[in-house]
Design goal:
The chain is α/β, with parallel strands linked by helices and 369 residues long. 31% of the residues lie in helices and 25% in strands. The protein has one domain: Alpha/Beta hydrolase fold, catalytic domain (Rossmann fold). The strands form 2 sheets. It has a 9-stranded mixed sheet with strand order 1-2-3-5-4-6-7-11-12, with helices on both faces. It binds 2-acetamido-2-deoxy-beta-D-glucopyranose (4 copies). This is Alpha/beta-hydrolase.
């Protein structure tokens, strides 16, 4: 099923013409399902899990899983593919974008001030095409339990989507891309790096935003966000989600995790909070299990993370973002790590996000992508 639409904006000179197509994509995957030992009965259980995970000794004395089982399942992934409206300006290069926790695919193309925050528009204006999708359990993709959605199945789905795109499926009139770049934000970066670890030739370029290999285990993320069961927080919106879906307690916990003063517009923090998406507790926990060290990746690799990223740099990326990333990507054709000045974890919503976008496309362009 597809719906094509042509968007031509005249209101903003910087918003490029783009041709977008929505797809509902069937995928069948095999994955190792890590089973959470104690599903939440209430927010008391959520708080208890968060404090157990954040314990200094969690690695040795806390085990959230009761076991793991190989599983095969079929889902539908909802995606959008956008290409430059003026096909003559297209590079034929596709960016496959995976969003992080707390967002849906609109992270890449928010409706608030697209000229300042839309990565899709920025990339389109430079001739790239962008394929962006709702991860399993989010937005219009298949709804599954928050105890089931986890890194293993999200990685398998991403691999599946990359294979389809490389064969010219779901790329509109572009057909087979000249090159494929995986780009992610946060958890979306973790699954992109994991896909390039198990399958080093999956893409020609790998861009990891809101990510580092030199952080804490992410427990600080949950302590700062103070998640609550989404269905209890907003039954009107989220009654259909089981207790495995959680979401930040309020606007300020969201700012604490995703923004850094003074590098944001308060209206943008409100927009992000009003459009936030619950995430699966198992996604938050399972990231630590998958191998994200893509040591055999030989394409072009980049890490770009807000200088003050709480989750991946414990609030300061300077001087740590390139270690041990540079040695992990020692086989990459080119590698750059950037601690992006001023920004917090939600890089695309930082005041000067377009400068970060420019660092990304400049680096890709300088390396043949
Ligand atoms: C691409 O689509 C064709 C036609 O539907 C299908 O036969 C092929 O398996 C798809 N490619 C992948 C990698 O799924
Ligand atoms: C982004 O803005 C912040 C403050 O809002 C500033 O500190 C930082 O230098 C800016 N980044 C760049 C790359 O100009
Ligand atoms: C990288 O490639 C080498 C040689 O083929 C192989 O032994 C190793 O297991 C690979 N590493 C990963 C992380 O897959
Ligand atoms: C993180 O960065 C610091 C500072 O460069 C470095 O000393 C440390 O070894 C890095 N951690 C890892 C795991 O490489």
């Amino acid at each position: 099923m597809l719906i094509a639409y042509l968007l031509i904006s005249s209101s903003l000179a910087t918003t490029p013409a783009k041709t977008c197509i929505d797809y509902e994509i069937p995928v069948t995957i095999e994955f190792l399902n890590y089973i959470i030992a104690k599903p939440f009965q209430s927010n008391y259980d959520v708080v208890d899990l968060v404090s157990n995970l954040a314990s200094r000794t969690a690695a040795t004395d806390f085990q959230p899983y009761s076991g793991a089982a190989l599983q095969t399942a079929s889902y539908t992934i909802s995606a959008t593919f956008c290409a430059p409206g003026d096909t003559a300006s297209s590079t034929g290069i596709v960016l496959l974008a995976s969003h992080g926790l707390n967002f849906d695919r609109s992270y890449w193309d928010p409706s608030i001030s697209p000229a300042s925050y839309s990565f899709v528009d920025f990339a389109i204006a430079r001739g790239y095409s962008v394929f962006y999708y709702d991860r399993l359990g989010v937005g219009k993709s298949s709804l599954v339990s928050g105890y089931l959605a986890q890194a293993s199945n999200q990685v398998a789905i991403l691999q599946n989507l990359a294979h389809e795109i490389k064969e010219g499926n779901y790329t509109g009139e572009l057909g087979i891309p000249k090159s494929l770049i995986l780009i992610g934000h946060s958890f979306g970066s973790s699954i992109s790096a994991a896909a390039a670890t198990v399958e080093p030739d999956i893409c020609d370029g790998l861009v990891l935003t809101g990510f580092s290999y030199n952080g804490t285990n992410g427990a600080g993320f949950l302590e700062a966000l103070q998640p609550r069961i989404a269905a209890t927080q907003s039954p009107g919106k989220w009654h259909q989600l089981d207790t495995g879906y959680i979401t930040g307690v309020d606007l300020f916990s969201s700012i604490n995790v995703f923004f850094k003063a003074p590098d944001y517009n308060p209206a943008v923090t409100k927009y992000a909070n009003e459009n936030k998406q619950p995430f699966a507790i198992n996604e938050a926990i399972s990231t630590a299990i998958v191998d994200t060290q893509a040591k055999n990746f030989t394409g072009v690799a980049m890490i770009i993370t807000g200088q003050y990223d709480l989750i991946f740099c414990t609030g300061q990326c300077d001087a740590v973002i390139e270690h041990p990333a540079a040695s992990i990507f020692s086989k990459a054709k080119a590698f750059e790590a950037i601690s992006f000045p001023g920004a917090g974890h939600g890089l695309n919503f930082a005041s000067n996000a377009t400068l970060a976008f420019k660092r990304i496309t400049d680096f890709l362009g300088a390396n043949g992508l």
